[in-house]
């Protein structure tokens, strides 16, 4: 049967999508191996069906649109931070890999996969060495209303911005016994620190934040 001649294309789509999915799975992203393999295989199947039935690749544009909607569902905004962009892009790219494999482009499909790995495994570590991305240590003094369980929220917000708490000191506020003060030492990039401070200021019950405060400052 003519359809059997397309099995190598489908196999290549599964293999290359698996590579991308494993990288996402290793980084514990919301879309992992199964999602990427299914998207890549689905795109390849659509390409094969288009070629067999219509003799061209007129379905390609519809694949791009459909995967665009799927990728949009992986992007969400939380506390002014956009997450899922890279995963959505990887799903979109794996559809392109599946389309290339389904069309029988045995050189282009692996080349796209290699380009993805180059970006994620080589270029990303290089960006961390840039001046704006270097991790620095900052001290935060945060005063908040006591008895509302805000400490857990504060720590969660800091973590959501990709920052690490290296030291935490809790002390009673000398201004108001109904408030609590903490001194935090956090590690992260300057941009992440600024974004974290903005998000912390928006937490109901947080009364004051002082960046790079000294332990004896009020």
Automatic annotation (TrEMBL):
Top-level division of the source organism's lineage: Bacteria
Protein's cellular compartments: Cell membrane
UniProt entry keywords in alphabetical sequence: Cell membrane, Membrane, Transmembrane, Transmembrane helix
Database matches in InterPro entries: ACT-like_dom_sf, ACT_dom, MgtC/SapB/SrpB/YhiD_fam, MgtC_SapB_SrpB_YhiD_N
Keyword Transmembrane in annotation: yes
Transmembrane stretches, start-end: 6-23, 35-53, 59-77, 84-102
Residue span(s) of domain ACT: 139-214
Topological relation to the membrane, as annotated: Multi-pass membrane protein
One Pfam short name: MgtC
Gene3D superfamilies on file: 3.30.70.260
PANTHER family recorded: MAGNESIUM TRANSPORTER YHID-RELATED, PROTEIN MGTC
Family assignment from sequence similarity: Belongs to the MgtC/SapB family.
Protein name (Swiss-Prot/TrEMBL): Mg2+ transporter-C (MgtC) family protein
Species the sequence originates in: Arthrobacter russicus
